[in-house]
Request: fold
Amino acid sequence: MKNKKRRSTRFIVKEKDLSRKNIWGHALGNVVTIDKNLNIEDYISTLIHECLHVLGPFLSEETVEEWGEDLKDVLLDKLEDKKYIKRYE
Ligand SMILES: [Zn+2]
Reply:
C-alpha cells in the first residue's frame, strides 16, 4: 500500500437519479452507476457493492452482499472511530 494519491482508472462512477427505478445502483462492465440521492452510508455501501460486481463478475449476489456489508462496516467503523464521520445521532 503506497501513501500516494491516485485516481482509480479501473472504475468509472456515474451518479444519476435512480429513485424512479427503485434501485440504489448497478454495474455494467467497469461502469458503476449510483443513485445521487443516497445518504453517505448508503452511498458508500452501494459503491462498494457495485465495485465488487466489477472486480468479480463471477461472484454470486450472495457473496457480493456479504463482502460488501463487511467492507462497508469496517470502513464506516474506522471512519467513525477517527471522527471523520458521525453516525447514529
Ligand atoms: Zn448486486
